[in-house]
Amino acid sequence: MSSESTAKAQEPGLAAQNEVVDKLKRGLDQMKGKLGELTAKRNQLVNRGRVAAAQSQVYDALKSLDAGDPTSAICRYEENIRRREATVRGQQELAASSLDGQFASLGDLGEQTEVEARLAPSSPWSGRPSTTKAHPRRHRITGSGPRNANMDPLHVQFRLDM
Asked: Reduced to 3 states, what is the DSSP secondary structure of residue 130?
C-alpha cells in the first residue's frame, strides 16, 4: 500500500509535469511552423531577386540590341558622321581664327613699318636734319624718356601742337 499512496501523492506533480510537457510540445510545434514560414519567405525573396536580376539583364540586352527598329543602326551611323563633321568644322574654325590673327598681326606690322618710315626723315635719332618745314598744326615727336641714340623709335609719343 505504500506504493499506491506514493503514486497518489505524486499524481498532482506528474499532472503538472505533463501540462508543462504539452505546453513545450505546442511551443516547439509553433516554432517549427514559424521556421517553415521564414524559410519559405527567404526562398521567395531570393527567387524574386533572381527574377529581377534576370529581367534587368534581358532589358539591358534588348536596349543594346534594339532589334525592333532596323533604322536605328543607320541613325547611330548618321549621328557618328555628324559628330565627325562637327569636329572637322571646329578644327577649321580654329585654323581660320589663328590665320586671321596672323594676318592681323602682319597688318599691324605693316602699319608700324609705315609709321617708322614716315618718322625716319625727321627723327632726332637718325642724325640727319629734317627736310620738312615745321607747321604750327604739325605733329611733334617727343621721346618717352631721356633722349639718346639707343632709343627705339617705337617708343615715340605723338603730341598735337595747338
From this structure: coil
